Amino acid sequence: MSCGAVYAVCALSTTTLSFVLPAAKCDFHLSSSDKGRLTATPLIGMCVGSYFWGNLADARGRRKAIIGALLLDALAAFVSSLVQSFPAFLACRFFSGFGIIGATGLIFPYFGDFLSLRHRDVMLCRLEVFWTFGTILLPGIAWLIIQDPRLNITAEGADFQYTSWRVFVAACGIPSLLVVLLLLPFPESPRYLLHMNKAEQALQVLQRIFVVNTKLTEKDFPVESMISAYDGEEAEVVAADNNGNETKSPLTWNQRWNAFWNRKKMLVTPPYIGLLVLCCFVDFGLMFSYYTLMMWFPDLFERFSQFSSLSPGVSAGVCEVSANVTRDELLGKNECPQAIDDTVYIHTLVVALSCVPTALSVGLSINMVGKKLMLVMMLISSGLAALGLNLVRSSLQNLLLSCVFEAIVSCTEAVLFCVICEIFPTKVAATAMAVTVTCGRVGAIVGNVVFGALVDQHCVVPIYMFGALLITSGLLCIILPKSTRPERPQ
């Protein structure tokens, strides 16, 4: 529950800007291109931050890195609610992305380190459900805060503005602080402690787990000493008694470097280099489509709302609505400030709720259907749903198709990660995952910039790009091998 709460907060922080786009448009005089830059900036922070937090977690521990990442995210949220210029706001959101990616990336290995192999897959799949809960919570918080005129704390036209959307941005930093309090009672990962040759501390953690779970005393714990062992070329055995006395010294830096380089060479030789390029292409296309539309859905719903108020009874597609609303803004028909229509919050909430059945069913059915087949089906069907956005003629049709797209695509990356763990050997799987995730974040950056630049006059282009990338990725996944690993023992 605690790790799930952290993951839900990661979803909340990652998607905060989706409601800032329509709400802050007047304060910062944002064009669609500016909105694209705004949604891309935290992703750039994520690309930079993932490497930093990964190294910090290896050097100082998983738990400390997660807590530090959450504190930085909260600080960035509070400061970004205060700054008055758009460049300063962009800088703060960069650090928000820089921080939250640390918690997002490390909560899975931290949680998994406490689980036995028998329970690990099921429990990690359950953790995915909390991401959906975070996206459900967001429109509720936004509706309660942004729509409340009492939270426009400063007078209109004042030099220092603190309006309701700024209160919302600050409020989205509070959960990051609260989940830090949830993590404080928990120990460091025992697997990490063994990896760092701190066998005595690892033993103390396991003793504590034993005491909590069994209500017995530490003296009843049957293990008296711990041994950490590594496979392959990094073989290094360190035994310790209760006093932590080591019986073997660790590898030298030169040995570690050689082992590290041998692993990387494996990843860039056939067949793994081809599999890596394919996985990177799939995640690039997936995040290009998923993250872009996820961040822009509230803004698109707001455009439909404005169009309906200006042209009641007229049916139009997504691209026609965007073009008309933009033209009306240029002609001065849409005045600032504007309150976001209630339907925007309701529609965003409905889209988030549509992901719940998928999030629950994927974990239950993935072994029956098969990871590869499920990945192919999800990519192709979400691509067809994306192409269908060009065919909608009303706000209701747009909502229904958005629900279908989001429900399918929201869990697709998790299935891709399961496939990566199957097709790459253990010693290079983590590196393959890191490279793939980075390519996905680059795809999200490019997608947001492209969509922001084209949505007003040429929005049919990015929509066709979304569909083409997803369907092509799905067809390419057909050539993926089932697994390169031996069958796991029952």
TrEMBL record:
Domain Major facilitator superfamily (MFS) profile: 1-485
Major subcellular location class: membrane
Residues spanning the membrane: 36-53, 65-82, 88-111, 123-145, 165-186, 272-293, 344-366, 373-393, 399-420, 432-455, 461-480
Localization per Swiss-Prot or TrEMBL: Membrane
GO molecular function list: transmembrane transporter activity
Entry keywords, A to Z: Membrane, Signal, Transmembrane, Transmembrane helix, Transport
Keyword S-adenosyl-L-methionine tagged: no
Membership in a protein family: Belongs to the major facilitator superfamily.
Membrane topology, as annotated: Multi-pass membrane protein
InterPro entries recorded: MFS_dom, MFS_sugar_transport-like, MFS_trans_sf
Source organism of this protein record: Euphydryas editha
An example Gene Ontology CC term for this record: membrane
Protein name: Major facilitator superfamily (MFS) profile domain-containing protein
Keyword Transmembrane helix: yes
Signal peptide extent: 1-18
